[in-house]
Every structure is written in C-alpha cells, then in structure tokens.
C-alpha cells in the first residue's frame, strides 16, 4: 500500500456505551477493536524511518514494529514485541494519555488524526486473553537474594516483575487492602476493569512474588527492620496519594469537603460515600474528571467542574473531557473557588467562586490565571471535592534519613534512581510527582536494573545511557 493510500484511511473510532446507560454503572465505556478494524487502523501507520512515536513513549515501545506485525495478523508476535519493553501493556493501553505521549508525537497527527496506537496495543492484549495465550515468560531459578517492594502500583509491579524474572525473591508490601495502588483506588472500573489488574497480580504470583496487603511500612515495619530481615535492597514506589488543599476559608472545618484521591479510594474499595446530589469538583486533570464521573455513577445528578484556565489547557485527556461532557457534567472554565459556605450546623451549602482571566505565562509556560475583581458568584452544592494535585506521604521512610526534594518527592540519582541511602531505590509518582502509568513503569524498569547491579556489586551507571526523562517530564 502506498503512503497516499494509507493517508486516505480515516482513523477508526471504537464503539462506546451510550451516555445515558453508562452513568448508571461502572462498565468499561470504550470497547476494543475487532480484528478487521484493528488491521485497518494498523494500515494507517506510515512506518516512519525515524518514528517520533517511539520518542513520545516513556517506555520506548517499538511501535512501528508491533504495528507491522499486527497488520500481518501475527498477533502473538506483535504482543511479545510490545512486551520486549513494557511489563504491563494491558494497563498502559487503557489508561495512558496517548494523545500527549505516543500519539501526540505521531507524524500523521500533524495533518489529521494520529494512528490509534493505544487501541492497537489494547487489541493485542485483549486478543491474547480471548485466545487463552500465555502472557508470561518462565521465571529464573531463585538466586538466594531478597528484595522488598513498597507499594503495588505500576512502578512497584514493574520492579517486582523484572527482578522476579531474574531470580530474586520479591515481597511487595501494600498499605491498602487491595493490590494495584493507584491503579485500583485512583482509576475507576469504567476506564480500567479490575480483571486487568487481577491478571497483573496473577503474573507476579506465578513468579513467586509474595504480596502482603494491609501492611504499612513505617508503621507496621520500618525500612531498617526490612534490612535486618535480610532484604538486600528495597524499592519505594508508594505513589502520591495525599490530596493538596485549596487553601480557602472553610476547607478544614466544613462537613461536605472531601479530597479527590480520598473520595476515589473510598468508593473504589467498596465504601458507600454520600456526597449529596449537587457536587462541585475543582481541577482539570484526570483525577478531577474521574471524581466527577464517579459522582454521577453513585447518585449525584448535578455535578460541576471548576477549572481556573480554559478548556484547551486542561491537563486531562481529550477523550475523558469529551466523555465527561457527554455524561452531563458542566464545566465552568476560568473560575475558581474562594470560600466554602455552610449553614448553622456547619454543613456545606454552597461554594463562592470568582471569575478568572489569563495573564502572563508562569513558570510552566501557561498563562497565569488572574482573579477578576467583583466577579464573585455562588454555586449551591452539597459537597466540594478538590482534585488539584497530589503529594507524597512519607510514613514509609520514618526513621530513615532519606533526602527529599523541596516539593516532597524523594531525591534520587536521575540515572539510577538510587536514593541517599545506597540500598534503597525509589521511582514512580513518589519521585516524579503525579504522572502517567507508563512513566512509572519506565522508572520501575530503571530501578530494577540498578538494584540488580547494586546487589551484584557492579557499577550502577557503567554502560547505561539513562536520563529517566526527568527533565522532559
């Protein structure tokens, strides 16, 4: 097929549940491709000599390679081509913001819609499951060394996966009562079905990885005690689970104020959380979007999102914003809360807001929101849920003198992810701040290699060309 013929093929869009139906349940919203659609979409790939999509992928998957195999119907080979670099394509294909990563770098996107790389990757993982193909490789024989992994999110899963396949006895300590970290308690089922996370758990157990749920390192057991228990190295991948506050009047004293990550964690672990019918969510990222869409599915019927910049600057993926608006959530752009209103019983009754306008760019390169004097307005509400960012909790490192950055993440060697304590390594959101699953996966891989070198007494940097993309991220 000639390039002009490939360029003439429009992007293939998947089927989706009807908005009126999907807000009543947590079923997966977007269906996967069938075989014919996947192959047609794969035909759109131009197989660039210098594939920018690979540069846009934090894990550096061989995207042209797996797409070429897919369109030849070599689905199993294509899957293993992805697995050469990615430990969890079933997760990344569903939750990564592809429009900002691989698809955002696709040459086809310069004059039209990019190749649907995420959907093609998902097709391969779904095909492997449907055809009952083995999705794991044999594990190495035990080598006698033990590793502790703190946190079972993407970084921890990846570190454990890599090290277990090298013969290391890995134990994952997870403070939550469920496996998966933020994958399980931060991403609703309609975006990431729980059987996908379950498959990752089964894969680890198949390699002898021990999972200890409900164990909080720093409280139930310290890092030093892990060392004394014979663990040769420790990886910290606790994520960023603490919501940042708005810093406005009434936030700490009013009933009806919840923070986004706390709300999602409670709902997604099975708790019934009554937030009322009218809900205001503050923020423009995927957590804010997930909170708003989850509120609809649990009984709220008037949900607002307040975002202080314009819709074009919202950091959430475009598809999530589209789904949000389809489902009836109202997005108030260029607006910010300034005060929480309450009745005599200290129960929230509304949110006083102010209109914003964009001024000069700030350090992020985006135009800074500036308050418009006298533009105050009130939204009646039963609850307000800030979802503006998250920070790292530091219970895990209690009693250990680990250096931290000024914004609270762990200080690491950016090439090896070794912390200020030589036998402790860290990666994922507790190093990067809130980021994508793919970036956490990549850091889990980097840390695993570094830990292996450390335990074998080798130089951690020799022969490695690593930056961890920390500057670009």
Task: Outline the secondary-structure elements.
Elements: H1 3-7, H2 19-22, H3 35-42, H4 52-56, H5 63-71, H6 75-83, H7 89-95, H8 117-130, E1 146-150, H9 154-164, E2 169-174, H10 182-185, H11 194-206, E3 210-213, H12 223-228, E4 233-236, E5 242-243, H13 260-268, E6 278-282, H14 286-297, E7 302-307, H15 318-326, E8 330-333, E9 335-342, E10 348-361, E11 367-371, E12 377-380, E13 383-386, E14 390-391, E15 424-426, H16 429-432, H17 437-455
Parallel strand pairs: 1-2, 1-4, 2-3, 4-15, 6-7, 6-13, 7-8
Antiparallel strand pairs: 5-14, 9-10, 10-11, 10-12
Which residues sit in consecutive blocks of at least 5 with pLDDT less than 50? Answer: 467-473
Q: Whole-Å distance between the termini?
A: 37 Å
Instruction: Walk across the major sheet and give the strand order.
Output: 3-2-1-4-15
The number of distinct β-strands equals: 15
Shape: globular
| Main sheet characteristics | 5 strands, parallel
Would you give an account of this structure?
The protein has 473 residues and is an alpha/beta fold. It is built from 17 helices and 15 strands. The protein has a five-stranded parallel beta sheet with strand order 3-2-1-4-15. The protein has a four-stranded parallel beta sheet with strand order 8-7-6-13, with helices on one face. A hairpin with a 5-residue loop joins strand 10 and strand 11. The longest helix has 19 residues, at 437-455.
């Amino acid at each position: 097929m000639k390039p002009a013929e490939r360029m003439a093929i429009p992007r293939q869009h998947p089927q989706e549940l009807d908005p009126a139906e999907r807000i009543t349940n947590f079923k997966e919203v977007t269906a996967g491709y069938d075989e014919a659609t996947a192959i047609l979409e794969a035909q759109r790939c131009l197989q660039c000599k210098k594939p920018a999509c690979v540069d846009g992928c934090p894990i550096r998957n061989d995207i042209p390679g797996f797409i070429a195999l897919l369109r030849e119907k070599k689905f199993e080979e294509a899957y293993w081509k992805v697995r050469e670099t990615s430990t969890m394509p079933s997760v990344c294909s569903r939750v990564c913001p592809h429009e900002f990563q691989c698809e955002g770098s696709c040459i086809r996107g310069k004059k039209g819609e990019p190749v649907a790389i995420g959907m093609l990757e998902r097709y391969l993982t779904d095909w492997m499951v449907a055809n009952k193909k083995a999705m794991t490789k044999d594990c190495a024989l035990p080598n006698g060394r033990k590793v502790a992994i703190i946190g079972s999110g993407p970084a921890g899963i990846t570190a454990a996966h890599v090290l277990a396949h090298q013969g290391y006895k890995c134990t994952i300590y997870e403070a939550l009562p469920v496996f998966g970290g933020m994958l399980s308690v931060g991403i609703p089922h309609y975006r990431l079905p729980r059987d996908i996370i379950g498959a990752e758990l089964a894969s680890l157990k198949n390699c002898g990885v021990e999972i200890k749920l409900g164990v909080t390192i720093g409280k139930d057991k310290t890092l030093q005690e892990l060392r004394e228990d014979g663990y040769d190295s420790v990886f910290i991948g606790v994520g960023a689970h603490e919501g940042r506050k708005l810093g406005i009047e009434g936030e700490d004293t009013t009933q009806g104020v919840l923070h986004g990550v706390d709300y999602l964690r409670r709902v997604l672990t099975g708790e019934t959380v009554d937030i009322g019918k009218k809900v205001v969510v503050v923020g423009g990222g995927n957590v804010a979007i997930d909170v708003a869409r989850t509120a609809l599915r649990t009984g709220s019927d008037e949900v607002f999102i307040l975002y202080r910049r314009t819709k074009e600057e919202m950091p959430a993926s475009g598809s999530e914003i589209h789904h949000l608006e389809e489902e009836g959530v109202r997005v108030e752009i260029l607006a910010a809360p300034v005060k929480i209103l309450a009745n005599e019983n200290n129960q929230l009754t509304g949110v006083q807001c102010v209109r914003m306008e964009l001024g000069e760019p700030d350090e992020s390169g985006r135009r800074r929101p500036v308050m418009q004097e006298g533009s105050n307005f009130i939204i009646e509400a039963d609850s307000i849920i800030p979802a503006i960012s998250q920070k790292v909790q530091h219970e895990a490192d209690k009693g250990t003198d680990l250096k931290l950055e000024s914004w609270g993440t762990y200080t690491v060697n950016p090439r090896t992810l070794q912390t200020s304590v030589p036998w402790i390594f860290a990666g994922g959101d507790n190093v990067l701040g809130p980021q994508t699953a793919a970036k956490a996966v990549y850091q889990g891989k980097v840390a695993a290699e570094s830990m292996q070198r450390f335990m074998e007494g080798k130089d951690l940097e020799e022969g490695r060309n690593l930056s961890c993309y920390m500057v670009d991220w």
